[in-house]
Specification:
By secondary structure, the chain is an alpha+beta fold. The chain folds into 2 domains: 58 residues, no CATH class; 387 residues, no CATH class. The protein is built from 18 helices and 13 strands. The chain has a 5-stranded antiparallel sheet with strand order 2-3-4-9-5, with helices on both faces. Helix 5 crosses helix 18 and helix 14 packs antiparallel against helix 18. The N terminus is likely disordered. Bound molecules: adenosine-5'-triphosphate and manganese (II) ion (MN). The site of manganese (II) ion has 6 residues, from loops. One of its GO terms (cellular component) is Golgi apparatus. GO terms for molecular function: ATP binding; metal ion binding; phosphotransferase activity, alcohol group as acceptor. Belongs to the FAM20 family.
Amino acid sequence: MYIVYLIFKYDFKNVLFLKNLYLFRIIMLNLRCYYRYYCIILLIIFLVLCFNVYLVLFFSRDETSIKIAPTVKYNATYLAAQNILKSLRILDKDFELPIKTSQSSILREINILLSNLKLKINGDIDLYSSTINVINENGLMPLYGSPYLGSTINLLKTSKIIKTCYSIKGTQLKLLLTFENKQEVLFKPKWYLESEVIHGNVYAGKDRYNGEILAFYISLILGFPRVPIVVKRILDSTELQETATIGLKKTMYINSTTKETCIYGKCYYCKREDPICTKSLRLEGAAIFYLPSFINLKQYLHPWRRSYKENQRTRWETDNNFCDYIKTNYDLERILDFIDIAMFDFIIGNGDRHLYEVMERFNNSILLIDNGKSFGNPYEDNIDILAPLYQCCLIRQKTWDRLKTLKGGKFTEILQNMLDVHETISLITLPHYYALERRMKIIYASVVMCQKKSNESIFK
Ligand SMILES: Nc1ncnc2c1ncn2[C@@H]1O[C@H](COP(=O)(O)OP(=O)(O)OP(=O)(O)O)[C@@H](O)[C@H]1O
Ligand SMILES: [Mn+2]
């Protein structure tokens, strides 16, 4: 605007203090007086347009940066996704304001959880039995954790391994480690850097070890203590060589040029030409507390599972009234479980919940096992993971109360504080932090949308 003002004043000396505007200077000096006015008007129009474009980009930088997965466009969830985004654009600004800890019993409870994450028990108490003893139908531990939590996490990171074999469960490469006291852990190796973006469909790629660890902490924050304890663990190649069973050794070799130990294991997707190898003689991964057999884990097909075939749609993808069918086949509590899980999966970006697992021993209460297909792409939000929520338009009151408590950045602030205790911040990159907050807002918008369109209360 200052330049325009100077031109009006014919004060070219001052205008041309911008030495690099040579072209502009030549044009202006060669223009006749009446052309100058056209030029000035055009310049003003141009500046106003630039300012408008800047305003649009500035105000839409958060929400419109959401990329909806292309598959959504061809199915019944397309309309729902559009409505959710519409609801997001007019979401009450109150959802951006954090709540003070002193004003919320949920935040105070999370503070107790945080303190329980720290090391507390140093005596010779059997931490693994203590971890098992707190399991009941409300989950794998109380919402505030257990006083043994921090010490158990520490033990899982440091216990001496006496046996390493491959696990035949599931379809991806996994190791089963046994500690001296016979406690077992599942080990999912690190295939990708934390910063790697997984492209393709929502279930593309291999398991993300960091996704398993982050899912454990996020489940605690969201009030679903249903993920077995997961820690980052580093195995060294000597340890691997010394503890490997004969069976595992048959699928292991040392790369003659790099001297790194490579393992290809035995599983549906395991291939000799696609092994996992140590890096600088270390193998990083997620160590998952193996649940005792007495809980009687049972697997069922998830009703909102995908077809896993490019051109084949499942019923929930094409039928807007799919929830009516669900309501006749599942009781309300189970439907509310599916909705809790959908929100959890949407937040972590897991679109691969093809099975759900329950503890038969504890009233068939649901667990959140296998969260490895999460944290793949922080730039894409797969709104169709939320289908159970927006197709049924129901949510547990206590889940909604907790989600609202985590607004205004509290969610990722708590996550960061939790990771600081036993893990490093390097487990999660900044774009993923932004994705977590953005997806939380999409959930608020979905619930608000449901509230507006339902005649009865959606809170159960
Ligand atoms: N912590 C655990 N405690 C007990 N059993 C477990 C645990 N984690 C996994 N399992 C069992 O192992 C099975 C396979 O684990 P997981 O689903 O993580 O592997 P996966 O290779 O990703 O399988 P899929 O190909 O089905 O996705 C589970 O379905 C469950 O029955
Ligand atoms: Mn899996």
